Every structure is written in C-alpha cells, then in structure tokens.
Amino acid sequence: MLKQQAVILLVDDDIAHRTMLKVNLVKEGFMVVELGDGDEVLPFLTANHVDLLLLDLKMTRMDGITTLSTMLQAGYTIPVIVLTAFSSVESAVLAMKRGAFDYITKPVDIEELKLAISRALNFRVLSVENEALKTRLDEKFGFDNIIGSSPAMQEMFATLSMVAPSDGTVLITGESGTGKELIANALHHKSQRKNGPFIKLNCAALHENLLESELFGHEAGSFTGASSRRKGRFELAHRGTLFLDEIGDMSPATQAKVLRVLQDGTFERVGGTETITVDVRLVAATHKNLRAMIDTGEFRQDLFFRLSVVPIHLPPLRERAIDIPELSRHFLNRYSKKNRKDIKGFHPEVFSLLMQYEWPGNIRELENTIERAVILCMGEQITPHELPPQFFSDATIPQRTLDGRSEFTLRDLEREAIKATLSQTGNNKSLTAKKLGIARQTLLNKIKEFGLE
C-alpha cells in the first residue's frame, strides 16, 4: 500500500506527543487523523475509512486495552500499533494477545515507528487480498456455481449441503464429463478444512509404481531416479482434503495401502520405515461400476465401504436435459467474454437440437460445443449453422449451399455471413458491423478481402 494512500488514525490524550507524531508522519506522506481518547474511536470508524490505528495505552476516559476490545467486538480488523511507556510493556504484550499488531515504547523512535507502520500496512494489504481470494474461491467453487435446477440436481445439492461440513469420506460417481471434480472442489471449499490444502491426483494418469510414490512419497534411493526424499499427496494434504479421481483404476496392492490410511491415518513412504500420521479428508471419484469390479475381484470391498460413507451420483446430461438451456447460457457468457464477442443468445431451434442430443461427453462436450459455436458465430445469435454435424440427421442438416458447392470452409461461412448481413442492412456498413459483433474497420477489411465491394 502506498504511503500516500494510507490513512492513519492517531489516538492519544497527550496533545504535545500527538502533534509531534503527526508532524513526522505527515512528512512521510501519510494522511493522519487525530483523536483525543479511546471512546472516540468506534464512532469515528463507523463513518470513516482507516488503514492503521496508532493507539496509546494510557488514556483518561477509555484506555487502549478497552478500546481494542470494543473494536474487535464490533468486528473491526484494522491493524493496531499500541504506544506504551517502557514500564508498561506487560500491558503492551496483553494488547497483542487481544489482537494488536505490534507495540512501540515511549519515547518513540520515529525510524522504529516507520518500520512498524510499513509492516502493518503490508499485513493489511495481504489480509484484504486474502479475503478477496477467499470470496472468489467461494464464488468459483461454492454450490451456487454448480448449475442445475432439475430434480436430480436439487436432490444432490441437498446432500452436498449436509455432507460438506462433515469429515465424512465421499465417493462421487458418474460418467466422464459430468463435473465430478467441480463437486469435489465445492465439498472442500464449503468444509471446515477450507483453509487447508486441496490436493488432487488422477489415478488413471500414472503407472502403478509411480502412483504409489505420488500417494505416499518416497525416500532418497528407494528406486532409480529417486535422488531425494519427496512428500506424497497424503502428506501434502495434511489437515486438508485429498481428491483421488478415477480411483477405479487403482491396483489392488495400492488399494490396500489407501485402506490403511483411511482406517488409522498412517503409512510409510516408498523405501522408508518411518510411520507417518496424517489428518486427511478423502474424496474419491470414478466413472466405473465399483460394485461390478468387486464381483470380479478388481476392487476391494472393504475399501469400497470405507470410501462410500457418503455416495454422491452425478446424473448424465441426457437425464437432466432441463438444465441444458441454463448451462448453455452460462458457457455462452463465458466464451463470449473470452473471445470479445457480443452474442446476445440462442436461436430457439438451437435449444431444441441441444436437448434432443444424447451427450455422450456430458457437460464437457456441451461446453466444447458452445465454445465452438461462439468462435464460429458472426452475428448476435447462435444458430443451428454453428453446431457440429453430429447434431443433425441427413434430413435435418441446415442447407448452406455456397456457390453451388456442397462442401465449404470456415472462410466461406464468414464471407457468406458478411454478404447476407450487408444485404439485410441495405449495405449499411456500420449497422452490418454491429450485427456481426465486429469493429467497422474489421468489416471494411473483410469486405475488401472477400471482394464484396
């Protein structure tokens, strides 16, 4: 925080001392506001912005400790530096236990005070940024960010709200692309562990030997290439949440070691003998049928029961078609901003086609479809022309004949869109550019490029 931007509230009933401090702080570029006693602080904070409080401990009407306590009770988290006589250091220590940032003994060394102020203001900036980050994380990973008004999703939201605050192990099942990682994120950020680490690992992405090392860590020399000790994901997730995606791809040997961690919270690193204890909440996910894998001996039944304390099933998109318009608008807004386009919405026929489609790739496929449509769209509305071929039977493919050809390129589409819009607007370039969502100069360049002059 720049000094010129910082507002310091100086509270001291000694006018001469207060004036001396103000003169020195103003010289440093700070804005300094003076108050004569502690009982004036709370009314002032209610109506004014303050970045830092310099607070004398010994005052006539309300001492510094009481002032500090009333501030904290009122919810103020402004950093406070207390000023105290050398003989009252114990009181200053008590003030720090009550929430003060630092203390300075009298007579005040101005250089020491400037250093303390700098540290306090930096702390203030970090605190504000941290709160803003937490807010953004809550918005990004909270349940409100998970879109769905279908009965299946509403039932899932009810389960999530009950499960998130607990430490229960959760097993999320569902087809690929249904949003299992998004649910895991939301569970962590709505839990009591949200200030702890959230560690992720895709079990299908690694060979069995590498997976064991990633999960539990390894000691130096435990295998070729292990030049130093390395912590595993369980250690890194201590006092937080570990999300194991595609746990159905884990080998039976590794399953047994994960089961032990779930039972007693202990394990050894690969190549090590030291037993490590961790406090971790486990959230697992899979697109496989674990019950069927139990019958074939591919998955341990005891691990399955440990994992599925709270089972959550994500329905495929084809079973929640009612959510497709809302999801589509969400992705349209995201990718219109990303691609700097002003696309207002969808042609009604588009929703009809989207809701009839089977969506084998689920929400991930829908997102990719909308992103593609945004990139191809030259107007203010997504039309069936921007959808990929799999959405149409031979009889329903929109006719887009270009100069008698049955095949065309993206360049052809762009030329025809400009040509058609110019015709609609009576060759009005400004209106055409607005309808296509592009700059007028870009339109003029395209007209020249395509020979449409």
Automatic annotation (TrEMBL):
The keyword Acyltransferase is annotated on this UniProt entry: no
InterPro entries the record matches: AAA+_ATPase (IPR003593), AAA_lid_NorR (IPR058031), CheY-like_superfamily (IPR011006), Homeodomain-like_sf (IPR009057), HTH_Fis (IPR002197), P-loop_NTPase (IPR027417), Sig_transdc_resp-reg_receiver (IPR001789), Sigma_54_int (IPR002078)
UniProt modified residues of type 4-aspartylphosphate: 56
GO CC aspect terms: cytoplasm
Molecular function as annotated in GO: ATP binding; sequence-specific DNA binding
Main localization category: cytoplasm
Keyword vocabulary terms for this entry: Activator, ATP-binding, Cytoplasm, DNA-binding, Nitrogen fixation, Nucleotide-binding, Phosphoprotein, Repressor, Transcription, Transcription regulation, Two-component regulatory system
Pfam families documented for this protein: AAA_lid_14, HTH_8, Response_reg, Sigma54_activat
Subcellular location per the Swiss-Prot or TrEMBL entry: Cytoplasm
Domain named Response regulatory: residues: 7-121
Domain Sigma-54 factor interaction: start-end pairs: 146-375
Gene Ontology BP terms: phosphorelay signal transduction system; regulation of DNA-templated transcription
Name of the protein this chain belongs to: DNA-binding transcriptional regulator NtrC
Source organism phylogeny: Bacteria, Pseudomonadati, Thermodesulfobacteriota, Desulfobulbia, Desulfobulbales
